[in-house]
Each structure stands twice: as C-alpha cells, then as structure tokens.
Predict the structure of Glutamate dehydrogenase.
Amino acid sequence: MTSAEAFMDRVRSRDPNEPEFHQAVAEVVESLWPWLHREGQRYLDAQILERLVEPERVVSFRIAWVDDAGKIQVNRGYRIQMNGAIGPYKGGLRFHPTVTLSVLKFLAFEQVFKNSLTTLAMGGGKGGADFDPKRKSDAEVMRFCQSFMTELQRHIGPDTDVPAGDIGVGGREIGYMFGQYRRLRHRFDGVLTGKGPEWGGSLIRPEATGYGAIYFAQEMLATQGQRIQDKTVIISGSGNVAQFAAEKCIALGAKVVTMSDSSGFIHDPAGIDSEKLAWIMELKNVRRERLKEYAEHFGVEYYPGQRPWAIPCHVAVPCATQNELDSDDAKQLLDNHCMCVVEGANMPLTTKAVAQLQSHKILFGPGKAANAGGVATSGLEMAQNSQRMYWSRERVDGELHTIMRKIHAACCEHGQRPDGSIDYVAGANIAGFIKVANAMLAQGCL
Ligand SMILES: NC(=O)C1=CN([C@@H]2O[C@H](COP(=O)(O)OP(=O)(O)OC[C@H]3O[C@@H](n4cnc5c(N)ncnc54)[C@H](OP(=O)(O)O)[C@@H]3O)[C@@H](O)[C@H]2O)C=CC1
Ligand SMILES: N=C(CCC(=O)O)C(=O)O
C-alpha cells in the first residue's frame, strides 16, 4: 500500500521546483489519506488522487505590450485548467510579479475543492501573469490586458472556462479584458465574472469574498456560543477581500484594529470605523496609494515591513497572500488568546502555522471553505447571465449567506473529531473531494 509520504515524494519529484503547489497538495493528501483508506477504496482503485494532482490542461503564453515610453515589454501568462469534472473551469486571474506556474497550480488545485464546496456547478482553474499593475498608468494596464486577453480568449468561454479577479485583477482589469474578448469573439458572453453591474456583473460580487469569510467566522464562533459582535479583529491586506471583510465586521459590531499592505501595517486601537474604511477604499481603489498615509492622516501607529499578527485580538483574518502567517505568528496569536483564525486569502498560513493552530484546537477556517464566497457569487453571476437577469442585492447576499452556512455544515459533517470539536481542514478537503471524485468515477478514464 502506497503511503502518503511516498505519494508526496512522487508529486515533488515530478515537478521539483513547485513548493507552493506541493504545500497545497500535501495538506489535502494528509487529510484524505486515512479517510480514503477507510472509506474510499473505489477512489483508490480509480487513481482519483493521482489524477487530481495533474492539471487537465496548462497553457502558457507570451504577452508583449507597449509601455507609455513606447518601449516593448514582455510578460508571461498562464491558464491552468485543473479539473472540469463538475462544471466549466472557474477561478481567478492574478497579476503580480511573484506569479509562477507553482503559485497558479496551488491556486488552481485549491479552487477545485473550493468550487465543489459551493454546491454550484463549477470546475477549478486559475490563471494570471507576472505583470505588476502597481505604478502603471491606466493606459498601460489597458494595453497589457488587451494583449493578455488576445491570447487567453483562445482557451475560455462561458461554458468552458470563466476567469475572474484575484490579486492585482479588479474591476478595471476585468473591464479591459472583457472589452477585448468582445471585440475578438464578436459575442457578449458571461465569460468573466466580476463585471460591472451595468454590463452583466452581479451585485455583491465585489463584497462577496470578504463578506463570506465573516459569515463563515460567525458560523464557527456560534459552535462555541460566541458572536463576532464586540470582538477585536485584526485583518491583513487592504485590497478587495480585506476591505469588505472589514466592512462586514464593522456592520456586525466588531472592532477592526489593523489592516496592511505589502509595505507594512497600521494599528488603530480605537478601531477602523465605516468612515475610516471609506477613506481606505478611496486611498486604495481610487488614488492607489500606500496605507502608510492612513497612519499620518489619523495619527495612529504604522509598522513598516511588519505584519499585524502580534496585535492582541479575538479573531484574525489574513486577507493578503500565501504564507503571510508563519509558525512564529501563530504562536503570537495563541499567546494572545486569539479564538478564531479565518483565511480570507488563499493559503495564507504556512503548513507549520496550520499545525500549530490545529494542535491547540483553535477555531481555524481554511481558505478553500472560508473564502469561497467570492467564487460562489461568481457562480451566481453566471446564473444571472444565463437568465439575462439581474438579482437584487438582498437576494444575492441572502444566497451567499446560505451557501456559506452550507459550506460550514459540510465541514462539520466530515470534520468532527472524537471530542466533538471540528477539524475544518479535514472537513473541507473531504467534503470538497467527494463530489469531484464521484463525477470523475462516472466520467471514465480521462
Ligand atoms: N478577489 C477574490 O475574489 C478572491 C481573492 N482571494 C484571495 O484573497 C487574497 C487577496 O486578494 P484580493 O483582495 O483580491 O487582492 P488585491 O490585489 O485587491 O489586494 C491584495 C492585498 O494583499 C497585499 N499583498 C499582495 N501581495 C502581498 C505580499 N507578497 N506581501 C504582503 N502583502 C501583499 C496587497 O498589498 P499591495 O497593494 O501593497 O500589493 C493588497 O493589500 C489573495 O490571496 C487572493 O488569492 C480569495 C478568494 C476570492
Ligand atoms: N480569486 C478567486 C475568485 C475566483 C472567481 O470568482 O472565479 C478565488 O476563489 O480564489
């Protein structure tokens, strides 16, 4: 019988320079292995896990574009179509200088389980490029997006592969890519989500990931008779996910005391209220400036080059990037009696940090479950596009909340420990696996 270690050795030796992908796979394999050998012989016989860790398709392409100085720039783009067993490939596009094949394969692999958990018909994929939108003019971003989509459009479609936003890809980038798709394919398709509400976008989609993470946190806290109201919350990031996680916390009566960007974090002990958050949204979404300005404007502390995890809190919500919270940070959270960690970002905790929290039975919501609200609402946008209809904010938010409750329930069903506590990592991985594995069994050897 192959061991989990032997399985991972094969994954690592097959693609030796993909540490982020190996990290994402190892977490799933560790969760699934005992369960598979207890209850999943049919999946073992069909080599489901062996097939899950191999993308169905990977495309890579050159992106040449002209900057404002008239100089030709060259970037590398990708689309990973990881698994389409339960629906068209669905997953974000990341524009960031740290984008590599390994990073996008980890994101695409996580997306397979996340999309399965949403209960909607969406397979898993991810894409992006090593382009840095920061300090680029709108015209440069537009020309890059047009060049990127000129290549990507060969591989996507509303019933094939539907990309969306992620780090560095917001409403502006989605708009430029949608326009280029429409020009080249001469069709108005629901081929991207996160579109503007005037041209097929769903209300609540911008808010959805952050809102959903806090809805999931509410469900976790409720298992211990706790509410997020009056809790102190620390958040990392100050982009799309962080902004709306903060907005939902504030609306529910929690006190948000930190936010960050890649230059450092601000600590506002009085709490970031809705007016201060509106100021941050204008700083980040309109002026595209650094969070340091907040500290100067509101007279609070700024910590350059640091992350917020040593600030005492009840709830921690990492919403920046992968591996932003390591085992030292996890120890700080535990020493400060943090009771709940919810991953708004994808894989923000290192493997050791996850193990540390899990060994202390702290409430820990992994990203594939906790941040699934974004892609779930993308699925709701696809449903509206198919109907050529628009749903109200209230209806979309209600559907989002219901989906987050269902994801939480699925994690509880498959992650209950003997002492009654919930292992959300195991629960999410097993629940996400079953639907995809059954579809793969039914569809034969491919
Ligand atoms: N957008 C979505 O629909 C979803 C996103 N996610 C995940 O949430 C996280 C944030 O995404 P999103 O909010 O959309 O992205 P944004 O680009 O809107 O914001 C990213 C934030 O993280 C910070 N950041 C990015 N890279 C680093 C880094 N290497 N070190 C420190 N800080 C960094 C950015 O700071 P700076 O501005 O200085 O770069 C910014 O504050 C990602 O992990 C993403 O994969 C998960 C589910 C859905
Ligand atoms: N970036 C996203 C959102 C993907 C989507 O909305 O298709 C994610 O789930 O990580």
Summary: The pocket of NDP (ligand 1) is lined by residues 92, 165-168, 170, 209, 237-242, 261-263, 319-321, 324, 344-346, 371, 374 (CB under 6 Å). The first strand starts at residue 57 and ends at 66. The chain has two domains: 4-187, 208-365.
